[in-house]
Amino acid sequence: MAVDAALAQHSDGWTRRLNTRHHKTGLEVFLFIVVAHWAEHIAQAVQVYVLGWPLKEARGVLGMPFPWLVSSEWMHYGYALLMLVGLLMLRGGFVGRARLWWNISLGIQVWHHLEHLLLLGQALTGANLLGRPVPTSILQLVLPRMELHLFYNALVFAPMVVAMILHRRPSRAEAGQMRCTCALAAG
Predict the structure, then answer these.
(1) CA-angle at 128, arms to 123 and 130, nearest 5°
(2) Residue 184 located in a structural domain
(3) How many separate domains does the chain show?
(4) Which of the residues 13, 101, 114, 132 could staple to 162 if both were Cys, CB 3.0 to 4.6 A apart?
């Protein structure tokens, strides 16, 4: 794959270190960022569905003191790009079944990123999809935006977690292929 070739080209540098001795730390930092983002979406859903707030007032935790965050396509796109880059950069440390699940998460995030790129393009040009009054993604044509992003985050998160669990508990053959120290000690 072209991504593997590009990462291999820098194998003497920081990407090699990230996917070997710093892989566990990289995964922990990445997981913290992902969970914090999830918390924002869940807080917004609780504000709407549990507390009964109107969607315009439900802005998650950070959106309360910084309301512009919720409506900033740049911020949403930046997070989608950060997720994509994180999944790509940490991919080299995975082997076997964990790599398959990480790749599934990466593939879904590619689509999620493209949806955010489409939204950003509309926000920048003012030309919204199908003449809609606000920037609209493709799947947003059938699902409301808040629910769609909960769905997207779940679709990316679930295989990512499976990959991390399998990575920490590799088979004997997979453990022999690993270049990092993420695997839990047996017994």
Answers:
(1) 165
(2) no
(3) 1
(4) 101
